[in-house]
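Reproducibility note. Readers wishing to regenerate the assembly model reported in the main text can use the exact inputs given here. Chain order matters: entities are listed in the order in which they were concatenated for prediction.
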Amino acid sequence: MTDQEFTASRRDVLKSGVVAAVGLGGADSVLSTLQPADDSGKSVNQVTSFLGEDQVVKTACSPNCRGKCPLDVYIRDGQVKKVEQQVPAATEFKRGCTLGISHLQRVYNAKRLKYPMKRASWSPDTPQPDKRGEDADFKRISWDDALDLVAEQIRTTKDEHGMEGIFWHAGSGDGGTTGFGRLKQLVGGIQDSFVFGIDTNVGQGFNRVTGEGGVFMPPTNTAEDWVNARTIIIWGSDIFASQFQMDAEWILEAKRNGAKLVVVDPMYTNTAEKSDLWLPIRPGKDTHLALSMMHYIFENEVYDESFLRQRTNAPALVRTDDGTLLDPSRVVDDPADDAVVVMNKETGEPEVVGAETGGPFALTGEWSIDGTTVQPGLVALREQAANYPPEKVADIAGLTTENIETAADWLATRGAGGIMPSYGVGRYLYGHVFGQAYATLLALTGDYGRHGNIHAQHPSYNGSYLQKGDWGSPDDAVGVETYGYQRVLDLLEDGGPAQPRFLYGMNSNMLGNQFPDRDRWLNAMENLDTIVWADMYHTPTTQQADIILPAAHWFETEDLLTTYTHPNLSYRQQAHEPLWEARDDYYIIAGLAERLGHGDKFPDDKHEVLDQFVQNDDRLSWEQLRETGTVATDETPDVAYTDEFGTKSGRITVYDDDAPTEKGPGLPDEGVALEVPEPLEARTDDDWEKQDEYPLVFMQKHSKWRIHSQWANVPWLREVNREPQLDIHPKDAERRGISDGDYVRVHNDRGSVVVRAKYNKGIRPGLVNTDQGWWAEDFVEGHYQDPISAETAKVGRTFAFYDCRVEVEPAADEYQSNQYTQDNPHGTAGSSAGGD
Amino acid sequence: MTNYGLVIDQERCIGCHSCAMSCKQENNVPMGQAWNRVLTVGGDHIDTPEGSYPEDGDDGTLEMSYQPTACQHCENAPCVKVCPVNATYKREDGIVEIDYDKCIGCRYCMAACPYNARVFNWDEPQHRPEEGTGDVEERPQGVVEKCTFCSHRVEEGLDPACVVNCPADARIFGDLDDDGSTVSKYVAEYDTNRLLDEKGTDPKTYYIQGEMSPGRPWKGKELESELDEQPTPEEADDPDSEESMRRATADAVWGDD
Amino acid sequence: MSGEVTERSATSTVRSPVVSSFGTVSKVWLGHLGVLLVAGLGAWAYQLQQGLVVTGMRNVFSWGLYIMLFVMFVGLSAGGLIISSAPKFFHSDRYEGFARLGVLVSLACIIVAGLLILPDIGRPERLYQFFTSPDFRSPMVWDFGIVVLYGVLNVWYLWLLTRRDLAARGSRLAFGAEDTQAGRERDRTLLFWTAAVALPTAVMLHSVTGWIFATQVGRGDWFSPLVAPVFIAKALVSGLGLLLVVSILADRYTGFDADRDELTSLGKMLGIFLAFHVVYLLAAERLPHAWADHFGFWAITSEFLIGDSIYFWLWTGVGGAVPLVLLATPQLRKRLSVIFVAGVLAVFGTLFEGIRLVFTGYESVNIDAAPGISLGGEYAGVTTDIWATTGVYTPTVIELVVTAGIVAVGALIVTVGLRYVPLQRQTEQERYAADSGGGGCD
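Running the prediction on these inputs yields the following structure tokens for the assembly.
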């Protein structure tokens, strides 16, 4: 074999990305001596390369951006040396972001948990929960001791306090196969869940009027179809920074294809920078804006009449006396379940129609049917929209009339389009009304079921789910009772209706991140005798635990991963054994199961579980999974909402006759009914009671540097994004005597946090922001969750992280020099001219 | 002859820093050093714009863009001309590279480079993890280092790491001497500019501004020259063409009335 | 003139060193220099072991004190050689009394300049690459050559000036030269030719050093055709300034005898050089920029007149305007103390000119968008601030000590030269009574 031949074959191997065959064996020494020379005979390879000596392992990422990007991991000398985007089976979904490719520094991270540990001051008999905290000491114990202790605590808790004494908590930190759900079903107890609590506002509002989707983002056309959009409104989301950056190409492609990109955001973000039109909305005025766009659409009669007649209840007759839909049985006998009464303009007679039925139905007018005055449902919406003319909303929302009209006009007249909100607007207390509002707005423009329609910021591929059989709900399950996150605090605090005594937590750094009013949580958790936490890292949350179990990094596990954001099902091949004594969560759970008498339900080898999933599924074969890492499983149609809607009438309820009444802070005691979108505000309202004391709205936007609190300690990322900062407009800062780079105290009557001020001319005056996901120890003092209320609304039931008012002042002198302002004579820390 | 160049489409760039991070990883770049940086052209901090916020019923003047910046691999590279010992040199394929065994660490090249693309190992290079990352041997203390266009990858038929790992397909690498290459075509077809063009360094990194390009038109990790067939970027529709409007408006899946 | 020399007897005209032996004060002085030298060596060893991270330099400001002082000492090395060789080229004996001391000072300065490069190099053990792999496009290679040539030339020149006297005194430094009439005659011819080579070499030295900067498009004002002429002017100012300072000190503290009239005359010359350098060339450099960048008359004028940094004012004010006024005032410029102060200020000023030159190159960054340039300094974990958008530089103690050690080498060379090289002026009667030597030095 000549060198050329060898090089050629090696290159082919490298290109295809399948280098597993080139292991760490004897060929390496040959490879490393290859020194290609140019024509001059001078060695051109001055850069000593190890390329080709790596073993390439196929794996995938799985945090809660839901991207599940397939990744190539390069191993040399038994170590992960780099991570690259993998070219998967559905090649156009080659993806991965800044975070995905920097996993190496998560695997080898100083914050990794190495051994099982127990809080020194904790013992089964004297748990001393008051001794938990940032100063708590831990001592190393063996895995056997750890698992014995946990199993014993589960048993005794159950004996003494009943099933509801056991509390199972999981966050969104991993999408792998752990057996956690299986075990809790077998053991019983109570569990928390996302229904409701976190980010469940926008989705539920949308769902209420369309009958589609759950509490998160609704279904939408798949990404390949977005290129057909003529107008894309990105609403309250910095998608090019957060959650979506690995899919950026789809929106860029739509824009290149002629789509108008509108961004609604009070901050001039990465995403706003790419927009054709940026609407710098005041915080909390999103429903106002949606209504004013509807107003424009009504006034200019650019709504999609045929869509409204056929697929919404716009023509459905509504009684003016009580606001209910006219009962079809008053017009015909035995109407179908989904029937509504409409007025046929041609016959002048009421008509009873089912879902997906169009016709010459009146959308305006008023009639008396058997003495009951009725109007088409659209009238109420129209009247509501009439209250929000663009010129008025421009004033309320800090926009220009012209820009509001342009956005509405583009959406209504340029052809198919869509709105991509994320969870941002849902982080106001009544954000679900915005979900209703944008669903209704898109109904007016007929943007459902067509190519180029968009309803959410991540696409919904339904094909790649694993056939897990009874894995999640085994025989002999005793079941668990579920509480939304928003109820857990009450549960812990006052024990009603159940008082958890034991908590097993995993995939979650809630206390360092997504639980508002942090002090209340810390106090409430003192009612727990035992807190067990499994995690990869020593997070601020594991620091509050009694028994800490070190979990393996994803790359150290074997798994199968699915997602709805792209059609590739990924195989996660183990890159190397878990470091130190860390264990795959599966084996932690299996060890517990064995001790709790459920060992027979958990095979000794996790591969057997995965093998069952593969055997269950015709599409999958180990051969293909091992060789290529992915299987393309696209069985989803491009276009969503082609069938009748999931509402009772099968129509979008632009008039929601069955609307709930929302109650909560800032609203009248009797509440507000929501047949049509009604702008509701709590603390963002100009009339909020403490608006003079705490004039600034405090937002915690998601950045490109973390997925929630994951990646917070990756050294490469921290070089660019060193410490928590407060985005503040120079005007707001100067008024308070705050210079760029000063440490400031962000506070209200609930709590405070000290961060470094960062002048940002792109943030709306009156609004301040600290990026979400920083760990407690990253703050000089306090935490961004400290000033945020854990209060939720009656309907919304969702934590309102952005519905927070604060004041900002220069921090005390002692804070002005701290861990981040080191004695670096060249650093920007000491000079105002510095970078970030 | 081959003459490698890079096209960066700033209209596509979303400022995510994937290129910068993959560069550090691939090239085992020491902590505290950056060969490839994503600069925010705007305010004083990254991700902040310059201008006035649209507060008072106006549109404001905020502006921001991202400019990934590394060695520009200039044709008339001042760093090559100043190096007293030929440690920095231009390869036959146009890549400006450093012989780390020759470099005496005089840093004249750093003074010469208008782009501040070069870094010097003032300290013993540090890595996380300590054993280092990527596929290139670390450079010793006391020498200058910089972007190599991932020459070690290019020699193996692979695109540079920053190009392969860009989620926005905003980076295209290829042979500027080949008129048929994507880089040549984009340079010809789009408004491109080069950094500090007026300095006469003749850089081979081109930045697209104005109209957005289709980006890197192939998904694999290989160089364009290694592809079996020429990639064909999808041409953008004329946004106002009848065909385009028809597809977007009338092509409803469900029946129209 | 030449007849005068021939008439003298060999023994009576043999000149001797101005310091006949090292006395207590000398020893204290030498001791201080020795301490500085040892400290400098220690600091350099520390720097070699730790790396350049112990300096104040970073990626954004990658040349510092060493290069600033290199530029300065190259300039300082000009004075003596030009003052001694220019008259010789024109077969004049004018300033003959300063020739030997001047060349000695030049030699010391060029050695200091050369040594200052060493600690600036990241991998000094690879300096042999200058010989094995030079790139002749590099101004640094040119400069390396010219500095070596200039140093050699200084050694040769000093030896040529003094070898007959050394031989007469039986010094081994004569290296076999004999003190003969014919030999001295031949040396005069050789001196002419040496001067003929030395003058253009000095011009080249300063120009090439200037071109190290002037060829660079990347660093602000460096890229200017004026830099080379400015470097020449600077060399004339600082070199002559230093020669005056050393001469007056030698006159005060050693047997060296400085001619008062010639000192005054040289002082006047310094004034002319200063006027040319600080007034004319600076104006020539600034006016076009001020004019092109501004519209209004006063805007142009103020931009033209008002400098931007402390270094600018230290140079043009303290180091330019003040000595110029001192030397331009007839009542003042005859006073030895005034000439001394003017010389000191001129040298002081050019120090800041060098500092300013380097600062203008690094202070502002061509592409200064955030986050900026990675500094490349010590990495102390995830809280390390690694970026800068402007160049900031403060030399560290290590740099100062290393530099002081190297400057001490120069001072040692001069001191030893005073003791062993015959620098005595030619005629006894020209010595001034008031300044008669012996000030306790020997």
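We highlight two features of this model. Residues 38 and 112 of chain C are 15 Å apart (CA to CA). Strands of chain C lie at 373-374, 387-388.
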